[in-house]
UniProtKB/TrEMBL annotation:
Key words, A-Z: Glycoprotein, Signal
Family annotation (PANTHER family): MHC CLASS I-RELATED, SHKT DOMAIN-CONTAINING PROTEIN
Alphabetical list of Pfam families matching this protein: MHC_I
Highest taxon in the source lineage: Eukaryota
Family that this chain belongs to: Belongs to the MHC class I family.
Name of the featured protein: Major histocompatibility complex class I-related gene protein-like
Amino acid sequence: MIRMTVLGILCWVHAAAAGTHSLQFFGMATSKGTGLPQSVYVGMVDDVQYTSYNSTMDKPVLLTDWMNKINGREFWKKRTWYILQNEQTLKWSLINTVQHFNHTGVHTYQNMGGCELHDDRTKRAYLSHAYDGKDFISFDVETLTWTAAVPQAVFYKHMREANTELQQIILDYFRQECFQFLEWCLQYGMETLQRKGKVTISYSIPCV
Ligand SMILES: *[C@@H]1O[C@H](CO)[C@@H](O)[C@H](O)[C@H]1NC(C)=O
Ligand SMILES: *[C@@H]1O[C@H](CO)[C@@H](O)[C@H](O)[C@H]1NC(C)=O
């Protein structure tokens, strides 16, 4: 089941509609003792994976070469910070959720989020979480509110709303950082992105 969930994070990756560019991430924390890394992170720009990280690594690895130019390294530094921050948040979420439910054994906590720029200049950002592979809670970037997908997640909503430091980090991320980085990628990586197109990850896994 855990293995399926690991593969499952890639199943979340879907091609965006034509006329849309997107920056997306998929993160997951897993209980200790599975033999799998306790956290995994995948970052995509359009349909190209640009970074990969898991808790057995010192730091995230950059998978594209076009970020090594202009102010790309500055963006990469910030990105590294966000990826490691996301790992902390996921671990914190997993520990608190497992504790809240008095669960034992192996559990997973996932988040996925991103931002989109459409050709008509409209923008969209989103963030949602899953516990044990099921929708748990989501964050509305417009209204800045957490919405529990299941009644059991209400405690988490309160916990997040009380954590002003984390709230500020996601506000900065989803209101600015995500779009700024996506725009930069489109400006400096566009050629590569178009050339690589949609072949970077091939999905041989049936997505359920
Ligand atoms: C974690 O990272 C290591 C080192 O890059 C890699 O060999 C391994 O396949 C990764 N595991 C997962 C589940 O991503
Ligand atoms: C978890 O255990 C504590 C103490 O035994 C109990 O008060 C609480 O209601 C339990 N929580 C759930 C969700 O069952």
